[in-house]
Amino acid sequence: MRGIPAPAVFALVVLALGVAVVARTVALGVGGGLGLLIGGLMVLGGGLRLYMVLAWRRR
C-alpha cells in the first residue's frame, strides 16, 4: 500500500495549523505578535519537515 507517509501527513497538519493560527491572528487585528510568531514557526517547521520527508523518500 503506497500512499502519503505518516510523517508527511503530520507535516501537513502542522503546516495547516500554522496557517490557521496566522489567519486567526490577522483576523483579530489586535497586535498579535506572539500569534504571528508561533504561527510562522509552525508553518516553517511543517514546511521544512514536509520537504525533508519527501526529499528523503526520493533517494
Layout of strands and helices, then pairs:
Layout: H1 6-28, H2 33-58
Helix pairs in contact: 1-2
Condensed summary:
This protein is mainly α and 59 residues long. The chain has helices at 6-28, 33-58.
- Tally the beta strands: 0
Q: Per the principal axes of the C-alpha atoms, what is the gross shape? A: elongated
Broad structural category? mainly alpha
Uncertain parts: none
Rg value: 14 Å
Share of β-strand residues: under 5%
What is the arithmetic mean of pLDDT? 89
Straight-line distance between termini: 19 Å
Number of domains: 1
Fraction of helical residues:
over 70%
Task: Report what the structure shows.
The chain is mostly helical. The chain has one domain. Helices cover 83% and strands 0% of the residues. It has helices at residues 6-28, 33-58. Helix 1 runs antiparallel to helix 2.
Notable traits:
59 residues, mainly alpha, 2 helices
